[in-house]
Amino acid sequence: MLDVSIVIYLDDILIYSNNPADHQKHKVLCRLRANRLYCKEFKYEFHWDFVEYLGYILLKVKAILDWPVPWKVKNIQSFLGFANFYCHFIHEYSDIVIPLIRLTCKGTLWKFNNKCMAAFNELKQAFTHAPILTHWVSDQQLVMETDISDYAIAAILSIYLEDSKIHPIAFLSQSLYNAELNYNTHDKELLAIFKAFKY
């Protein structure tokens, strides 16, 4: 059940499901009781479409999928403001948002073209299909993968778990600015490694 339909952080338990019928099958409270762990009634909530958990607001994916297509700069800024908060959960976030960020630059004419629409849709899909991140375990082997483009660097930090599979624990994605844009490929790759270690 852990990391399949349940996430636990200290004494906070988050149970999630695709639908109400699956939610009833989890029987988490029965397992807690069987292990003599009890919850105070005023501390739990059931059947919410959104919840604040560890400072993050988790909401139904439908709200993101139904986000209207931006028709002015303020709409893009609003969407990016929401998305930026969750950028560490989306692989290659900085590469995806480049066409949208360009629209917000001062003096740029509004032209929401096919590239912008593709970026907007890709970002919405990334929210709905983002992999579940695993907690870092200090005695497990850490794996770092880095990637670069002309405009951004990215890294995935993962660990090997008991199932001998690699599980992501964090994503780093950052746009390149000023002098960094002029770095050669080798230096951009070193920058990605440096930023990943610093992360």
TrEMBL record:
Keyword Thylakoid: no
Domain Reverse transcriptase/retrotransposon-derived protein RNase H-like: 113-198
Domain of life: Eukaryota
Key words of the record: Multifunctional enzyme
Keyword Nucleus tagged: no
GO MF annotation list: catalytic activity
PANTHER family to which the protein is assigned, alphabetical: PROTEIN CBG26694, PROTEIN NYNRIN-LIKE
Protein known as: Reverse transcriptase/retrotransposon-derived protein RNase H-like domain-containing protein
